[in-house]
């Protein structure tokens, strides 16, 4: 756990929009009133996420229920997956959605019939890729300072206050010293060795 005990405050979005690099896939995420922006901001260093993102870690934001994530656009009604959307299953429990045109990784999601080990509760959530959030919401590009603050909502989405998983895969001298990944005096969240 991070040693910084000061409470973290930040503007919270009611919703954000995002999309893939080529714009064939557009989405909107609506946040419930009681959404926990700290616990929902996580990272993953598993090899699957590294291969898919091409990056050393996956910055993800968890939204529950998964229906709060919806596709938007002119060519398809809300909620219908766009034609460019491709699903890849790297494991038995989850699907990874990406754009078949440009390759952008969009979300990781437990399969529809997945249940939590032990409780048997339905795993109805989705982790979207924070990096595909539109610049307006991510860092305030073109923001009006009213609906969207000038600095955007990036800290709400990617504060690292949730779980940092697969830290056993950390890279010495690189990701094992990163505050973004929960280390150091400003590191937040809980570091786990596996998922
Ligand atoms: Zn695309
Ligand atoms: Zn992962």
TrEMBL record:
Q: Where are the transmembrane segments?
A: none
Matching PROSITE patterns, A to Z? CENP_V_GFA (PS51891)
**Tagged with keyword Metal-binding:** yes
Which residues belong to any copy of the CENP-V/GFA domain?
A: 16-147
Which keywords does this chain's UniProt record carry? Lyase, Metal-binding, Zinc
GO MF, one annotated term: carbon-sulfur lyase activity
Presence of the UniProt keyword Ribonucleoprotein in the record = no
The record's listing under PANTHER family reads: CENP-V_GFA DOMAIN-CONTAINING PROTEIN-RELATED (PTHR33337:SF40), GFA DOMAIN-CONTAINING PROTEIN (PTHR33337)
The text of the family note is:
Belongs to the Gfa family.
**Name used for this protein in its record:** CENP-V/GFA domain-containing protein
- Organism classification: Eukaryota, Fungi, Dikarya, Ascomycota, Pezizomycotina
């Amino acid at each position: 756990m991070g040693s910084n005990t000061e409470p973290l405050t930040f503007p919270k979005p009611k919703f954000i929009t995002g999309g893939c690099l080529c714009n064939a896939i557009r989405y909107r995420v609506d946040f419930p009133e009681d959404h926990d922006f700290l616990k929902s901001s996580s990272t993953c260093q598993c090899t699957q996420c590294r291969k898919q993102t091409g990056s050393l870690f996956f910055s993800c934001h968890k939204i529950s229920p998964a229906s709060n994530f919806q596709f938007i656009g002119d060519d398809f009604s809300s909620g219908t997956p766009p034609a460019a959307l491709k699903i890849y299953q790297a494991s038995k429990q989850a699907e990874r959605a990406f754009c078949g045109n440009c390759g952008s990784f969009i979300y990781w999601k437990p399969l529809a019939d997945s249940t939590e080990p032990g409780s048997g509760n339905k795993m109805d959530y989705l982790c979207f890729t924070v990096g595909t959030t539109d610049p307006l919401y991510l860092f305030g590009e073109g923001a009006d300072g009213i609906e969207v603050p000038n600095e955007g909502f990036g800290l709400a989405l990617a504060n690292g206050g949730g779980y940092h998983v697969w830290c056993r895969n950390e890279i010495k001298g690189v990701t094992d010293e990163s505050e973004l990944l929960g280390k150091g005096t400003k590191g937040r969240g809980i570091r786990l060795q596996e998922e």
